[in-house]
């Protein structure tokens, strides 16, 4: 099986240490060794992008009309909380207090792959979200991505 290593996938359950550092999953470390940009994500998780993916996302955001109030609100929330981190030699990244509070992170975390980014969740919140969405996912009958499925 030829897997596209340019994308993140899988679910991992690292711990947050007393200093607010998180061990990145070993499978994600090679792609994140040059850094990860962390921001507030939807459903109160933390999004993490490679610097290149975040730059590409930012380039697309530049094309959105800042005269649109929702665009401004989204940009403010996303960029004001952004933090650029470089993993230490043990593969840990620091998560700022603002982001830890946003995601309500406890000691047990879930780090999931989400194609071009990772998401960091409090483990209990991830389990609850996953359980809530499993049946909806199973029952999807309309095409979410027309022409793909």
Structure commentary:
The chain has a single domain, classed as Transcriptional regulator MraZ domain (Chemotaxis protein chec), CATH 3.40.1550.20. Helix content is 34%, strand content 21%. It has five helices and eight strands, in the order E-E-H-E-E-H-H-E-E-H-E-E-H.
Topology as H/E string?
EEHEEHHEEHEEH
Biggest sheet, in brief? Answer: 6 strands, antiparallel
Whole-Å distance between the termini?
A: 20 Å
Cα shape:
globular
Approximate helicity band:
25-40%
Architecture (CATH level 2) name: 3-Layer(aba) Sandwich
The first-level CATH class name: Alpha Beta
Low-confidence stretches are none
Residue-averaged pLDDT, rounded? 90
What topology, given as strand order, has the largest sheet?
A: 1-7-8-4-3-5
Question: Can you summarize this structure?
Answer:
By secondary structure, the protein is of the alpha+beta class. The protein is built from five helices and eight strands, in the order E-E-H-E-E-H-H-E-E-H-E-E-H.
